[in-house]
Amino acid sequence: MTYPRWDNRAVRVDSTALALAPVRKIILGDNLAGLASLPDAFAAVVYVDPPFNTGKVQKRDRIKATSTKSAGEAGDRGGFGGRRYTVERVASSTYTDSYDDFEAFLMPRIEASLRCLTKNGSLFVHLDYREVHYVKVALDRMLGRECFINEIIWAYDYGGRPKNRWPAKHDTILWYARDPTHYVFRYDEIDRVPYMAPALAGPLKAARGKTPTDVWWHTVVPTSGREKTGYPTQKPLGVLSRLVKVHSRAGDVVLDFFAGSGTTGEAAALNDRGFVLIDENPDAVAIMKRRLAAHHPDLIDLRAPATG
Fold it and tell me: In order of start, what are the domains of the chain with their CATH numbers?
């Protein structure tokens, strides 16, 4: 499948984009319809975290753990110091992650989002090993290979370890700049990480830490952590915060049209950015509303009204 090349000169700046800068919006509805409702050139960052086409039904239970009063007391699960916990499932969510032609599903949506990028904006597409190579080729055709800046590897060490192949423990984030000669990259905003051999670096460098490379080691969202929403495929806040801080400025707007649990929105809000989040799953939008309630997002429902 071929796509028309992205003409950088063809982006029309809509004055209504200025109205989006301070706002925080959650849009419930199909992302193609949601993207069509948005103005041009308002988003400094477009982050795309689509389903990974695993061919499976994805399910995630949300649990509530209540500590027992004393060590050794009966409970469903064990914890630190012999303490027991009673576990209750409070919610669950599922979706079928299977597409006969993943490229045909994803690429028109990415293309529809491109007009929303500012002149110095960046596109990030988050995938895993199943589809990333095909989407990389399609993005090169659509945007031009010169717009490709980085392949970021998010590496983690969690989950099962099969004995018939090397365990898959990383995702890939493809970074494209609308203009490869003029994009936002705020080097001084990069969070520092520890040296692997601090003694070799010396005490001053070891205390300061180093900037990460294109391989980002970051744990997945802990199962029992406060960050956990119970939504399938939730990404860590630390990964999204790094993208937001480095590739946008305070007051900018971040767009995520596969918003899921709203991690992109939280990363934006905590770093003084606006956000526009789109998802067609009412359960996802309900989680986003609760998670982002302190930031007072506007909710827009684009679904057709019920009849009959």
Answer: 8-55+98-301 (3.40.50.150), 60-94 (no CATH)
Looking at the whole model, is its pTM more than 0.85?
no
Residues 6+ apart with CB under 8 A from 215: 152, 153, 155
**pLDDT, tens digit (0-9, with 9 covering 90-100), for 74-122:** 555 433 344 444 545 554 444 344 457 899 999 999 999 999 999 999 9
